[in-house]
Amino acid sequence: NDGSTDKTSEIISEAAEKNKRVIILTNKVNLGFVKSLNKGIDMALGKYIARIDDDDFWSDSGKLENQVGFLESNPDYVLTGGGAICIGEDGKEIARYLLPEKDAEIRKRILFDNCFVHSTVVFRKETWKTASGYNEKFGVNCDWALWLELGKFGKFYNFPEYFIYYLKWSQNSSNFNIRSDLKNMIEMRRDYRKDYPRYKKAFLLGWAYYFSSFFPCRQ
């Protein structure tokens, strides 16, 4: 509960009453998304971490079993994910997509784009600690930055299956926020240029995205 003023406290208290494994963490003041993520994972008791946003839901009942089974059988892998089904606020499907599956394929693309859907991932908590958790300086791109850091310690894998129903909101970001995020991504690519291939092309693409944000047709 990140300093909320709505019914969050009441709702999570009900969840904890129904399931004794639920641990409630309360921030007296709002710490923000990244600090709260790190705090929650630090307190988690499991060997593996799976996360999900409050407006998404897993579409595959075997998701966790498959991902944990894969990581148990393949100790050289540190991160797994899967595909997503995007739905609108009316509950209707907008699109669905799968992401690069194998490690070599993911590494070729990961400086260009985030190759994992955040609410589908399962990763090892021990490796998360080694990677120093989510990096606050990358803000909303902290998940992408974490994957890049985790990839220094092991391999990637995306299941060719749809794991999540993900809600697409119709909210519009300001031009300032968009450009700030795009600059943030350029800096992130620069930080990991020695760890992944095709940096120059990814760097140029990042600047192309940034300059295109000044045009009204950027969408």
* Helix-strand pattern: HHEEHEEHEHHEHH
Overall pLDDT confidence: 93
First-last Cα distance: 34 Å
Category from helices, strands and their pairing? alpha+beta
Q: Report the sheet-strand fraction.
A: 15-25%
Q: What does the model show?
A:
- There is one protein chain.
- By secondary structure, the chain is α+β, with helices and mostly antiparallel strands.
- Helix content is 39%, strand content 17%.
- It has helices spanning 8-18, 33-43, 63-73, 103-109, 125-130, 142-150, 175-191, 199-212, and strands at residues 48-50, 57-58, 77-87, 93-97, 122-124, 155-167.
- Strands 1, 2, 3, 4, 5 and 6 form a six-stranded mixed β-sheet that branches.
- The mean pLDDT is 93.
Question: Which key terms come to mind for this protein?
Answer:
alpha+beta, globular, 6 strands, 8 helices, 219 residues, 39% helix
List the topology elements.
Layout: H1 8-18, H2 33-43, E1 48-50, E2 57-58, H3 63-73, E3 77-87, E4 93-97, H4 103-109, E5 122-124, H5 125-130, H6 142-150, E6 155-167, H7 175-191, H8 199-212
Parallel strand pairs: 3-6
Antiparallel strand pairs: 1-5, 2-6, 3-4, 3-5
Helix pairs in contact: 7-8
